[in-house]
Amino acid sequence: MPVESKLPRPPKVTLPKIKDFLAAIYFLIWIPIGLFVLLFIIMSVRQGAFNSLFGKQSAAPTTSNQTPTQQTETKIPGVGTVNIACVQSNLSQEEIQKIITVGDTSTFTPEEKTKLEPCITKKETPAATPDTTNTTKK
User: Could you give the angle at the alpha carbon of 88 between the alpha carbons of 108 and 69, nearest 5°?
Assistant: First the structure.
């Protein structure tokens, strides 16, 4: 026969109500957090946030055979509207710089003016100054 010890055994402490309460609190906290994370992931997938991870490349809009529109004419003060390509082919860079720095063709030689003449599409008319000699006071 086995010899039983005469020492008292400690009582088994079971706290089923506390464990159940803590488990309920744990689930009440983590289930909404998990649902929120799942909803966030679903919305990100729908918006395409993970396309690069999954290997799907979105087709970028292509602009094939489209050249940027270039300005063909410009207005030069003191000269008028001129064709840019014509001016670049007929005048040297120094002559073009003269127009830009001075603001007109007053420093041009007659030869330079004749080179520029075919490039002018619309001549600038001098602004009319108001006539102050015929004003009368009442």
Answer: 135
- Taken in order 39, 40, 43, 48, is the CA torsion positive or negative? negative
Q: Which long-range contacts (CB under 8 A, 24 or more apart) does 124-131 make?
A: 124/75, 124/77, 124/78, 124/79, 124/80, 124/81
- Tens digit of each residue's pLDDT (9 = 90 or more) over 35-60: 999 999 999 989 988 888 877 665 55
CA 9 to chain centre: 78
Q: How far apart are CA 25 and CA 29, in angstroms?
A: 6
Instruction: Copy the structure tokens of residue 66.
Output: 């489209």
Task: Note the pLDDT tens digit of each residue in 72-106.
Answer: 888 877 778 888 888 888 888 888 888 778 777 77
Q: How many CB atoms lie within 10 A of CB 54?
A: 9
Map out the domains of the chain as residue ranges.
Answer: 15-52, 73-123
Lookup: tokens for 39: 């909803």
Structure tokens at 25: 């609190």
